Hints:
The protein is elongated, with a radius of gyration of 17 Å. It has one domain (2-134). The protein is built from six helices and no strands. The longest helix has 30 residues, at 80-109. It is 82% helix and 0% strand. By secondary structure, the protein is mostly helical.
Amino acid sequence: MLNYVHSFLRWAILLAGIWAVIRSLRGVTGKTPFTAADSKAGLFFMIFCDLQLLVGLILMFVSPLAKQGFADMSVAMKTPVLRFFTVEHEVMAVIAIALVHIGKSKIKKAATDAQKHKLGLIFFGLALVIILALIPWPFREALGKGWF
């Protein structure tokens, strides 16, 4: 059940992340003012990432795959699927979520609208790229988990 929630939240994160990046990109290229909609895009991206982190932490303790990987890390590091789900996935997720939080904080402190849009584009864009890399997409043969 938790695996389905974790999988569903991935789509919410992707949509919110794309929304935040597009709003930032439009702000940078169009030199538009930073509005409440821009702030909400980043806020929803951050909220969905935080929810995903919470569900992911719970999964880390109950998932048979994670338990297997954490039981013997030397074996996990030699097995691509176990290494991905016990090390790479978690590390990239924490980095992406940290980037979203840092970006949101820096945007609040920025003095001009142009700076706010630029910071959003940089931090949210980097986080989105990392998130795209950490998802076990179905076309990644060794890791494919299905679309939902």
